[in-house]
């Protein structure tokens, strides 16, 4: 038996048990939602059915940033929506669920927990799981997907559309897919000068584009590296996950977005060339960059468009290094 592994697992379980207790306290502090139409939200008796239990905690994988907009807690399974459920509450009940859940997730108590665990993606997911478990059980149901299928079952309902994780969920595949010709888009330098994406390309030289994520700080020989500052993924006034991560509002003007990009470069000593997406988010809608992605354009073609894992909804940050290694190998074989 690996004593160190066992000890680490025990520490992790204890940490998550404490997190579950904190979450339960935060939920209790917020109080239940008001009764609708003078009726109790929970039936007097419930049939005996298996209760949903959040998956056990596991050690976060390194080099694999997650995209929370892909998660079931946001009504999604990757680019698709959650569709399967054993229970079908009425639209009226689903609306109440969504409103109650939204109030809990945006509450000061839960946001404080997000702040305490912001470096642990699994912890954030665990908290959201616990909240959704509480919500469905509060309304007398057992299957957490009774809530998570809201977007699939009632995609045009205004109450569901108003939920922050629906309204501000901008995941998209874009319109340019891997192995298709790249498209030029208008961008800006961080000091506000209009420029184009194609102006950064040179014949015979791959252009690596990092949108919303940094995986390396310098470009290898013969390769150009470009960062593009896109819209905020978790803006304070849209989809907050604690004050540490969600420390600024979503810009409404180009000047505000440029200022955010400048502050980012300054605060993180960011030396890589950075351009800024325009306020129509043209780069994002063209290439599907939200909230982060890796691209390689070579000889006018999009030769790499990183895709999230279909089970964990994470990106492999080693993918770009593997592409670079293969590029150098193929070049050496042709010389």
Automatic annotation (TrEMBL):
Responsible for the deiodination of T4 (3,5,3',5'-tetraiodothyronine). Residues 24-65 are annotated as: Disordered. This is Iodothyronine deiodinase. InterPro entries: Iodothyronine_deiodinase. One of its GO terms (biological process) is hormone biosynthetic process. Coiled coil: none annotated. It comes from the Eukaryota. GO terms for molecular function: thyroxine 5'-deiodinase activity. The keyword Oxidoreductase applies. Belongs to the iodothyronine deiodinase family. Gene3D superfamilies: Glutaredoxin. It comes from Adineta steineri. PANTHER family: IODOTHYRONINE DEIODINASE, TYPE I IODOTHYRONINE DEIODINASE. The keyword Phosphoprotein does not apply. Keywords: Oxidoreductase, Selenocysteine, Thyroid hormones biosynthesis.
């Amino acid at each position: 038996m690996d004593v160190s592994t066992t000890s680490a697992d025990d520490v992790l379980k204890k940490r998550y048990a404490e997190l579950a207790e904190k979450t339960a306290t935060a939920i209790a502090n917020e109080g239940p939602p008001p009764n609708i139409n003078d009726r109790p939200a929970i039936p007097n008796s419930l049939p005996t059915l298996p209760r949903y239990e959040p998956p056990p905690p596991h050690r976060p994988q390194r080099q694999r940033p997650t995209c929370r907009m892909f998660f079931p807690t946001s009504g999604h399974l990757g680019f698709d929506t959650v569709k399967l459920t054993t229970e079908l509450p009425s639209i009226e009940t689903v609306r109440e669920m969504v409103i109650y859940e939204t109030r809990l997730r945006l509450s000061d108590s839960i946001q404080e927990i997000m702040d305490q665990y912001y470096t642990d993606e699994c912890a954030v997911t665990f908290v959201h799981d616990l909240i959704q478990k509480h919500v469905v059980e509060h309304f007398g149901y057992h299957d957490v997907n009774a809530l998570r299928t809201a977007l699939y079952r009632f995609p045009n309902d205004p109450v569901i559309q108003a939920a922050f994780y629906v309204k501000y969920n901008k995941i998209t595949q874009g319109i340019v897919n891997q192995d298709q010709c790249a498209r030029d888009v208008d961008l800006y330098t961080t000091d506000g000068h209009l420029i184009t994406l194609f102006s950064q390309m040179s014949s015979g030289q791959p252009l690596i584009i990092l949108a919303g994520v940094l995986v390396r700080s310098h470009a290898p020989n013969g390769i150009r590296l470009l960062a593009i500052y896109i819209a905020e993924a978790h803006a304070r006034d849209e989809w907050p996950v604690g004050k540490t991560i969600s420390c600024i509002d979503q810009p409404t003007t180009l000047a505000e977005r440029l200022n955010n990009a400048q502050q980012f470069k300054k605060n993180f000593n960011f030396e890589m060339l950075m351009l800024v997406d325009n306020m129509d988010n043209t780069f994002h809608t063209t290439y599907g960059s939200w909230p982060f992605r890796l691209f390689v354009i070579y000889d006018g073609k999009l030769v790499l468009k990183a895709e999230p894992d279909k089970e964990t909804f994470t990106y492999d940050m080693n993918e770009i290094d593997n592409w670079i290694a293969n590029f150098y190998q193929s070049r050496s074989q042709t010389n």
